[in-house]
Model the fold of this input.
Amino acid sequence: MFQQNYPSVQHDYQFELNKDFNFSAAHYIPSEDAGKCMRTHGHTYFVNLTIAGDTLDHNGFLVNFSELKKIVHGQFDHQLLNELPQFTGKSPSTEVVAQTIYEMVQSALDERQNKPQCLQVYVRETPTSYVVFRPKETSHE
Ligand SMILES: [Zn+2]
Done:
């Protein structure tokens, strides 16, 4: 699909999984000082998720790769992000999109018995702009 080097995260987990996927969506930044970003426009967002853990499930997975993609792609692809419940009252900037993806992915991971952690969400919005979101601390052990 596509290959790229991503910034790496320091951690002590035994297993680290990375999943790439992309989705296409429209958004606008709802404020006067956002310049032309105020107008509705679209991006193909490229996402890389970094998931880690010490325990595998009965399939030998930290989490199924396709499940990870489904969590985000299924909800964001070909949507106007501003209209989604995840962005109610928020500005869907690249930073907020990355943080929101983290929250969606981690809450899905929290339902798994082997308790994997999302350590990093990389979101590329344009060929020259990307954001990396890392949770400050993992509230789970
Ligand atoms: Zn934009």
